[in-house]
Amino acid sequence: MTGASLRQRRPALPRLLVLLALISFLWPGGTRTGFPWSAAPAFAVDAPSEMLPDPAQEKRAEAIGARLRCLVCQNESIEDSSAGLARDLRHVVRIHVARGESDAQIMRWMTQRYGEFIRLSPRFSIATFLLWAMPALALIAGLGLAATMLRRARPAPPLDPQEQARLADILKEEGEHRS
Amino acid sequence: MTIPSRRRLLMALPVAGAGALGLGCWKILSSMEEGGFDPRAIRTEAMRHPLPDFSLGGLPGAGEGFDTRTLSRTGEPVLVNFFASWCIPCVAEMDALRKIARFLPIWGIAYKDRPEDARRFVLRDGSPYRRIGLDPDGMTAIEWGVTGVPESFLVLPGGHIAWHASAALDARQFEEKVLPLTREAK
Q1: Where exactly are the structural domains of chain B?
Q2: What's the predicted TM-score (pTM) here?
Q3: Which one of A115, B21, B83, B112 is separated from A92 by 20 to 30 angstroms, measured CA to CA?
């Protein structure tokens, strides 16, 4: 392997890492449920006895729990956290699921007690408008900026005959000075 | 040579942005110091204000238990305090609670505690609690929206939660936030 090819290859690794980090960050729910390439999110259900016997119900309970904030750790879902309160809330979610309540009913039960803050992804409202609209607004602003920059960078119109004659004169003068 | 005013404006924009950001950070930090803003506080404005349904057994020798009915029929403001003998901030809060108990009845709820531990804890230096309910599995705490101990709620006659603190109480907080609300209720 030559030195040149080594030198070309070296910066590829950090760039790749940045790209991977970006993908995992932008992946829907990527920051919450682990990296997209890990087959299953690592849930913190501490004991099999916590789980519901019906796999379909258990799956629903896990999905609901992944949307609820652990109020002790605050940036983890109750499914991810092993805090005592998270364990209790997982248990409560499973009781409600086993009773056959809908997702909306369970989320309402939780927000009635712990406020909107318990939702890991806030609902769309006037207060959260900027939060949700920011990606679109940023994209529009960026496109607008790019459009104005590109328009400004357009090549200047060709010189008219009068200007061409003047340019030739100037160049000729320059040539006489130099010689 | 003059810089076009448009370019000057574009150069000023990042400076102004950084300035605004700095101002915002300073405002957050200063209000955190004054106690006006707590980033870890659970937002309480969405909390439900009527009392939740619950019924708790008492702690024999230290206090009678209580439920939603008894708490809403007191006829006077009550401070409900969630505590546990295993919780260090609760130990530190006890002194303030004993002082507060001279102005306002305090009803305690022992969160995930063994009865004998809770009894030893509250009786050690004199109990501030008029009543004590046991919440061994923490399910009543969830009904109240408690995220940890200690937490306190001001309950007004008729069973309405008027105030909630998700941290240990001190004398200053009590005088500034809780006492005015109890006076309003009278």
Answers
A1: 1-34, 55-185
A2: 0.70
A3: B83
